[in-house]
């Protein structure tokens, strides 16, 4: 367990990433998705706020079919960081937000890695 990573479901980004384990957040260089007023460019964040969703896990649309969830920037991010945000959202649906936050903080991971069944 990483002592710098705290467990808090408010640190789950709208797209399923876990801000609490992000190096920038831990170092105090980013407030996290929910408190980052500069992140108005994020279509996922805007959609969740407009629909009063805590994360995309609350939406009835499959994330795979969502053009906001699967936009150019999210695909680029996924490629660079080998991130599988679909897997993050599925995990939130499977175990709930608090358990997901605990699991990610215990692992010290910001995301479930693409193609990684053990991550």
How is this fold's topology laid out?
Elements: H1 23-26, H2 43-51, H3 72-81, H4 85-95, H5 97-107
Structural account:
- The chain has about 120 residues and is mostly helical.
- It has one domain (about 10-105).
- It contains five helices and no strands.
- It has helices at about 25, 45-50, 70-80, 85-95, 95-105.
- The chain is globular, with a radius of gyration of 13 Å.
- The model has no long low-confidence stretch (mean pLDDT about 90).
Q: Extract low-pLDDT stretches.
A: none
Radius of gyration: 13 Å
Mean pLDDT: 90
Q: Which percent range describes the beta-strand content?
A: under 5%
Largest sheet: none
Shape: globular
State the helicity in percent bands: 25-40%
What's the N-to-C terminus distance?
Answer: 14 Å
How many distinct domains?
1
Q: Output the helix-strand order.
A: HHHHH
Oligomer: single chain
Structural class estimated from helices and strands: mainly alpha
Q: What is the number of helical segments per DSSP (H or I, 4+ residues)?
A: 5
Number of separate strands? 0
């Amino acid at each position: 367990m990483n002592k710098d990573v705290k467990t808090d479901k408010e640190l789950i980004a709208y797209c399923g990433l876990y801000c609490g384990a992000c190096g920038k957040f831990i170092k105090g260089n980013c407030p996290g998705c929910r408190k980052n007023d500069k992140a108005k460019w994020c279509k996922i964040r805007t959609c969740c706020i407009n629909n009063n969703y805590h994360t995309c896990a609350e939406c009835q649309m499959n994330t795979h079919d969502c053009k906001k969830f699967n936009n150019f920037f999210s695909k680029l991010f996924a490629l660079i960081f080998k991130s599988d945000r679909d897997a993050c959202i599925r995990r939130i649906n499977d175990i709930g937000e608090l358990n997901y936050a605990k699991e990610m903080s215990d692992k010290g991971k910001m995301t479930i890695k693409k193609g990684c069944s053990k991550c």
